[in-house]
Amino acid sequence: MRGTTVITEPSRAASPLKRFLPIIILVAGLVVFFALGLDDYVGFDVLRENRMALADNVAANSLLASLIFMAVYAVAIAFSIPGGAILTLVGGFLFGIVWGGIMVVVSATIGATCLFLAARTALGDTLRRKAGPWMAKLEGGFKDSAVSYLFTLRLIPIFPFWLVNLVPAFFGVSLGIFVLTTLLGIIPGTLVYISVGNGLGATLDAGSDPDLGIIFRPAIFLPLIGLAVLSLVPVIYKKVRARRA
Description:
Blueprint: H1 14-35, H2 44-60, H3 62-78, H4 84-95, H5 97-131, H6 133-144, H7 146-155, H8 161-170, H9 175-185, H10 187-198, H11 200-205, H12 218-231, H13 233-244
């Protein structure tokens, strides 16, 4: 008698757990961060007390310090830990405008992509199924001009960074478009804060804290709005052409 191969179906209970595991880890990490009081260490007072030690460590081993900084930055973004602006200032202070800016942009993109993938895997399909036809229509409009919309969301600093990482996941935006718009869209804002961070030593020596609201000054905010409007030109053109048709 020939043997019979029995093919068993994968456990249905394991599939949802596997799907939700990444987002569960990220949420749990954020909860642990606040539960341990680690948010008390994210501030200018702590930086003022330890900035010389940090600068000495960077001078002693710049490569290792760069890798550690990038890892910390990426983890902070992935777990949506507050303090991204302060970390950007630290990057400018420790590594300079060029190298610090590159590290911040790359690290922020990596962290944002992790959150995007976790949210898309765990919540994207479920949200679209439960929302119904209106969600599909909204998704279609967003995906049709995803590059323009995402550049606009990245350029205007009034939208929380973590929120802009989640919205594309719910609308089914492709990974490539998300990475591209994140990598390029955060450059202007990063340059603003990284430049402030480059002169952070003098500010701290004076006994004052840098102005994190500098990006909302008209000389900076209005050009960002202008770039955001330019990124929406293709969307406006499509809508005008559709109405004429």
